[in-house]
Amino acid sequence: MKTTKAIALAVTTLALSACSQTSGPWRTLKKPVAAAGPPCAGFTSSIYFDRDSAALTPEAQRMLVNARAQARGCVIRAVHVVGLADAVGAPEANLALSRRRAQAVSSALAAQGFGKAAFDLAAVGDAGAEAPSGAAAPLRRRADIIFDIAPSR
């Protein structure tokens, strides 16, 4: 019994001493595990809305702040905003709602410092919001934003 305990203690001691060494396989990586994207590359984001609403949620506001931070130090050539709606309700009402969503996003972006960019707004309403099976797509309650940015010269 004493021999078994002594062996277990020796194995544990060796294992712990191996953990304390400064050279391990994780320290010999030549490349980073995750690398940041290229600076000043264009990107796309989506803002989601509650049903029948064009009001920006707190999450949407945070996304816009993050977009501004990502574009900091870059030339903002254009911002394309496309408002969408789901297939619930009248097509005319959905088109008007998608326009209000696009306008709400562009106004918020201008307030975040994107005001000097050329804005291109579009609204598609509920066009394409139904699958061939007739199922509605609720994730269309959004505005898609395409940021066209480039490195400053």
Descriptive keywords:
153 residues; alpha+beta; 60s Ribosomal Protein L30, Chain: A; 4-stranded mixed sheet; 4 strands; 21% strand; globular; flagellum; cell outer membrane; OMP_bac; OmpA-like
Task: Provide a descriptive summary of the structure in words.
The protein has 153 residues and is α+β, with helices and mostly antiparallel strands. The chain is 37% helix and 21% strand. The chain has one domain (43-151): 2-Layer Sandwich (60s Ribosomal Protein L30, Chain: A). The radius of gyration is 26 Å and the shape is globular. This is Flagellar motor protein MotB. Keywords: Cell outer membrane, Cell projection, Cilium, Flagellum, Membrane, Signal. InterPro entries: Bact_OuterMem_StrucFunc, OMP_bac, OmpA-like, OmpA-like_sf.
Most strands sheet: 4 strands, mixed
What would CATH call the class? Answer: Alpha Beta
Low-confidence segments, given as residue ranges, are none
How would you name the CATH homologous superfamily? OmpA-like domain
Measured as a percent range, the helix fraction is 25-40%
Structural class: alpha+beta
Side-by-side strand order of the widest sheet: 1-4-2-3
State the end-to-end CA separation.
Answer: 75 Å
Morphology = globular
**How do the SSEs run, as a string of H and E?**
HEHEHEE
- Quote the beta fraction: 15-25%
Number of domains: 1
CATH architecture heading? 2-Layer Sandwich
The radius of gyration computed from the alpha-carbon positions, rounded to a whole number of angstroms, is 26 Å
Count of helical regions: 3
Tally of strands: 4
The name of the CATH topology is: 60s Ribosomal Protein L30, Chain: A
Keywords: Cell outer membrane, Cell projection, Cilium, Flagellum, Membrane, Signal
Protein name: Flagellar motor protein MotB
Main location: membrane
Subcellular location: Cell outer membrane
